[in-house]
Amino acid sequence: MFKRVAVLALAMTLIATAASAMTVQEFLTTASRIPQNPTALLRSDTRRLMNEFRDAVQTVRTEQTAARTAGRRPATCMPEKVSFNANEILGRFNAIQAARRSQISVTQALREWMAERYPCPV
Known about the structure:
Layout: H1 2-20, H2 24-32, H3 44-69, H4 86-94, H5 98-101, H6 106-117
Helix pairs in contact: 1-3, 3-6
């Protein structure tokens, strides 16, 4: 029963993510318009980017849990607590080739980053 619920949750997450997936280029363009000062947290664009990134993290975690539940090796083995800061995120996203930024979602970029940063043992 738990496997079915996990698979259903994963499917719903993927469908919701696909419908509103923000590209890395859109993320970076929006971020570049936000001032780097304490008032940035009051801006709706800041909250939108934070929510987009939070949702991406949640999607990757859900996929990881679903893979483990199904007895498969997950693409990433992210620990329970992972912290990110804005400079780290922007640095990583800016490191993606410019031509690819408009073709890759924030979720996919995070998925690849976490697979590189927290690979699962064989």
